[in-house]
Backbone:
């Protein structure tokens, strides 16, 4: 009979462990969702930054071309 008296204690301990596992899984799901949102934002920022960098390089190349043409003046023969 003594062994049967320990079952409620064991069942309660198992229930606490399961509750703890459930809580940890819920926290993990929340963290994964937050991480997914953060990654999406980072991806969008990276695209935007890449586009701005290409535009800046293009403008810089145009400025350099204008300076080179202005200095060399290939249409004027001396």
Residues:
């Amino acid at each position: 009979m003594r062994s049967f008296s320990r079952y409620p204690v064991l069942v309660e301990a198992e229930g606490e462990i399961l509750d703890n596992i459930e809580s940890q899984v819920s926290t993990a799901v929340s963290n994964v969702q937050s991480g997914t949102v953060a990654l999406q934002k980072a991806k969008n920022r990276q695209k935007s930054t890449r586009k701005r960098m290409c535009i800046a390089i293009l403008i810089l190349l145009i400025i350099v071309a204008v300076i080179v043409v202005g200095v060399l003046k290939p249409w004027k023969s001396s």
The chain has one domain: 2-71. The helical segments are 2-5, 7-72.
